[in-house]
Design goal:
alpha+beta, Immunoglobulin-like, Purple Acid Phosphatase, chain A, domain 2, seven-stranded mixed β-sheet, 28 strands, 20% helix, 30% strand, binds fe (ii) ion, Purple acid phosphatase, Metallo-depent_PP-like
């Protein structure tokens, strides 16, 4: 061994002994979200050491990276014992051409990401957005992820809705599980808007990993917000305000007031005419026929009817959503799939006996929480509930396409059955809003 090599080995041994940490300026965990205003997209990523926040992008097929946008990095300190820190970069792209695919990378002069692409959302209301939706996907056993990756790569979706419960859990191992999960979903979340709501698995340190890592519209750190896509108004909210009241009962009331205001606005005749579909997404369902002790198995589930042991009593959400004519409510939390007949207050309101989903007289609920996690899947009670139309404990996720103002299609994909659509529904409505119930 020559002297130079010996020196190198010595240096290596010394730095190991001194524990000199590596420098992390390479961008990772890239994901995108729709910030709510037409022509925009928000790019979010992480570096462990401080760098600038830059996105270089351009129209697919044009000159690469001819456009540049800059943003900011926020320091996030995890609540775990190591108090790990990371920088969360956010860069807003504006004035994107609707329906046009873009190519981008992100980072800084200290390191650039791989190249990704996305299609800017169309602004008009007369197109037919396609979604993947699911909840409860973890770092361990994310069984549906491979299929979702392939679906996304063949450009099957315009947006992905993750209905709460990420990573299991993002805060674990001093938030390294959160890092690893966000690396896993980069394969889908860097290509289409990845829209979220919080679940119970995010609750540690007052939801801080969730609030810091995601970048949803509104100024609520992604806790509740709404956005428009094609003929749809999507409302995302936190069911967790009904359970983690230790973080502030006022949050429950604040959200309720916000929901009411948002629904009021969405129901103004000129708005509902433009975007007739109102779809809500929240983690814990109001109804379910699972064989567990969850909230949704209770007749007076907190999400459905509220809390009566608080001052003042806290209103539930079923009446509110019914009053404002919500068309479809999507949920997760139960690690299974369940489709309900149109239902209000435990009563089935079919459109008709033969065509229950043609002009239904109450909202339709779908529970799709079996994307895959370390807790496996949830079984059902053997009895059949009169409001339950179909149920399955296969791993999987839902696909939805809103064709136009009257037709919405939804299907559940079974990953256990190699991608077979095990259930499907056409929701057809000539009329939207509370007057549709009459
Ligand atoms: C890089 O980040 C690590 C982890 O947060 C930290 O320990 C280290 O001090 C940082 N180094 C520099 C040069 O900022
Ligand atoms: C929890 O976070 C919310 C913001 O989402 C904040 O308003 C509230 O005060 C926090 N609660 C506690 C107990 O820190
Ligand atoms: C309060 O709510 C619980 C369920 O959350 C229910 O069992 C109880 O009957 C309710 N009490 C009153 C007075 O309504
Ligand atoms: C809902 O049903 C319960 C009993 O099944 C009834 O007591 C209650 O009045 C109903 N509420 C509404 C708003 O219809
Ligand atoms: C609703 O429609 C389904 C499918 O036709 C039927 O099985 C169910 O009994 C109906 N429920 C009521 C209350 O009419
Ligand atoms: C809406 O879409 C459905 C499904 O593609 C189609 O059958 C129907 O004719 C469309 N309605 C209008 C008004 O375009
Ligand atoms: Fe959950």
């Amino acid at each position: 061994m020559d002297t130079f090599a010996t020196l190198l080995v010595l240096c290596g041994v010394m730095s190991l002994a001194l524990g000199v940490p590596p420098i992390w300026t390479q961008p990772e965990q890239i994901h995108i979200s729709y910030p709510g205003s037409p022509g925009s997209m928000l790019i979010t990523w992480i570096t462990l050491n401080k760098t600038d926040s830059v996105v270089e992008y351009g129209v697919w097929g044009g000159k690469l990276f001819e456009l540049t946008a800059k943003g900011q990095a926020a320091l996030f300190e995890d609540g775990g014992s190591e108090k790990r820190t990371m920088f969360i970069h956010r860069v807003l792209l504006r004035e994107l051409k609707p329906g046009v695919p873009y190519v981008y990378h992100c980072g800084s002069d200290l390191g650039w990401s791989d190249i990704f692409y996305f299609t800017a959302l169309r602004e008009r209301v007369d197109w037919s957005p396609r979604f993947a939706l699911y909840g409860d996907m973890g770092n361990e056993n994310p069984q549906s992820l491979a299929r979702l990756q392939k679906d996304t790569q063949v450009r099957m979706y315009d947006a992905i809705l993750h209905i709460g419960d990420f990573a299991y859990d993002m805060d674990e191992d001093n938030a390294r599980i959160g890092d690893q999960f966000m690396r896993q979903v980069e394969s889908i979340a860097a290509y289409v808007p990845y829209m979220t709501c919080p679940g119970n698995h995010e609750n540690t340190y007052n939801f801080s990993n969730y609030r810091n890592r995601f970048s949803m519209p509104g100024n609520t750190e992604s806790m509740w917000y709404s956005w428009n896509i094609g003929p749809v108004h999507i409302i995302s909210f936190s069911t967790e305000v009904y359970f983690y009241t230790n973080y502030g009962l006022d949050l429950l009331f604040k959200q309720y007031q916000w929901l009411q205001k948002d629904l009021e606005e969405a129901n103004r005749p000129e708005n509902r005419a433009q975007r007739p579909w109102i779809i809500t997404m929240g983690h814990r369902p109001m109804y379910c026929s699972n064989a567990d002790k969850d909230d949704c198995t209770e007749f007076n589930s907190h999400v459905r009817t509220g809390l009566n042991d608080t001052t003042p009593p806290a209103p539930g959400l079923e009446d509110l959503f019914y009053r404002y004519g919500v068309d479809l409510e999507v949920w997760a939390h139960e690690h299974s799939y369940e489709r309900l007949w149109p239902v209000y207050n435990y009563t089935v309101f079919n459109g008709s006996l033969n065509e229950p989903y043609v002009n239904p007289k109450a909202p339709v609920h779908i529970i799709t929480g079996s994307a895959g996690c370390r807790e496996r899947t949830d079984p059902f009670v053997p009895e059949h509930r009169p409001w339950s139309a179909f149920r399955s404990s296969d791993y999987g996720y839902a696909r939805m396409q809103v064709f136009n103002s009257s037709h919405l299609y939804l299907e559940q994909v079974s990953d256990d059955q190699y991608g077979k659509a095990i259930d499907s529904m056409w929701l057809v409505k000539d009329k939207h809003g509370p007057e549709a119930w009459l």
